[in-house]
Design a protein that fits this description.
Blueprint lengths: L1 E7 L6 H13 L5 E7 L6 H9 L5 E6 L5 H11 L4 E4 L11 H11 L3 E9 L3 H17 L8 E8 H8 L8 H7 L4 E8 L11 H15 L2 H30 L7 H33 L6 E5 L1
Parallel strand pairs: 1-2, 1-4, 2-3, 5-7
Antiparallel strand pairs: 3-8, 4-6, 5-6
Helix pairs in contact: 5-8, 9-10
């Protein structure tokens, strides 16, 4: 059986069409399937439309979360409740085309892979968003030493082995594409052009995108804390250079008049220290969230 996990937040304009096209695509293969829709605290009629669709389609399982817990938590809930031999993970904004789900399934069956990810060959989204995402993928790929696959998001299919491996992760600050690459196993890919949203507003604002990027980098790279070390070493070298310059200036009678040199030195070291404190604070905050060990989500009701 194939389980398709879809997180939804205020997608009343798209949800019916998404499910209709998904049912048509899955029906062509003649494979048993279930669709696990996670309502992540929607305040519009998304849940009502899901329940109406379920009246005639009993393969639809609905998880209604007690409030909005965020995309990664909603995805985790769907993965936890999926029961299929293969699990497809896709976004609910129609930017992951439903007709590619059978393509993912055929690919994982034909190659014997454990994971098949959909790589975005082209993106038909706003220019500013494409720029942000391309910059993130370039930085993330370099900081992780090439262990992450560029231009991949949540859209993928995993088998039972990979599914069980992902369910073992208990971290609070999570980035599912990073976890998917971290577990290893045999990984294959398909290429597709990612369309823009058909209707409605994007739920991932710039702030949320930057927060997700920060979680990904802090969780899978040691370079932020390494940067503190390298900047500190650079500061020490500059400090010794300043000492040599000051002594030479005194001896040669070229010592500058005024406070400009002192002001620049204080500003430099002060900004470096504040940068260090900020980076360390990010790690301390994430450690604090992990130590709290709060549940990632609460399910208000399951419709199955």
């Amino acid at each position: 059986m194939i389980s398709v996990v879809i997180p939804l937040l205020n997608e009343e304009q798209l949800v019916e069409r998404l499910l209709v096209e998904l049912w048509e695509s899955l029906g062509k293969n003649g494979v048993e399937f279930e669709v696990v829709c996670v309502d992540d605290g929607s305040t519009d009629s998304t849940l009502r439309k899901l329940l109406e669709f379920r009246q005639e389609h009993n393969q639809l399982k609905i998880l209604s979360l007690s409030r909005n817990f965020g995309l990664q938590a909603a995805l985790t809930a769907g993965v936890d409740f999926a029961t299929g031999e293969f699990v497809v993970i896709m976004d609910g904004d129609f930017q992951d085309p439903p007709d590619l789900v059978p393509v993912l399934y055929e690919k994982i069956k034909a190659t014997g892979a454990d994971i098949v990810s959909a790589v975005r060959e082209a993106r038909n989204e706003k220019f500013s968003k494409r720029v942000y995402i391309n910059i993130f993928h370039r930085i993330f790929d370099r900081l992780t030493g090439g262990q992450q696959v560029a231009q991949t998001g949540n859209f993928c299919i995993i088998n039972k082995k990979a599914h069980q491996a992902i369910k073992q992760f208990s971290e609070r600050n999570r980035y599912l594409p990073g976890i998917r690459n971290f577990i290893g196993f045999k990984h294959e890919f398909i290429l597709y052009d990612r369309p823009d949203r058909l209707e409605g507003e994007a739920k991932m604002s710039r702030r949320k995108l930057f927060e997700l990027a920060a979680d990904a980098i802090y969780s899978f790279s040691k370079w932020p804390i390494k940067a503190c070390l390298y900047l500190g070493m650079l500061g020490v070298l500059i400090f010794f250079g300043a000492i040599i310059y000051t002594i030479a200036s005194k001896i040669l009678g070229l010592a500058p008049i005024g406070w400009s040199s002192m002001f620049l030195a204080i500003s430099f070291f002060g900004s470096v220290q504040l940068t260090f404190l900020g980076l360390i604070g990010e790690y301390v905050y994430r450690i604090f969230k992990e130590v709290q060990n709060r549940p990632l989500y609460f399910v208000q009701k399951v419709y199955e």
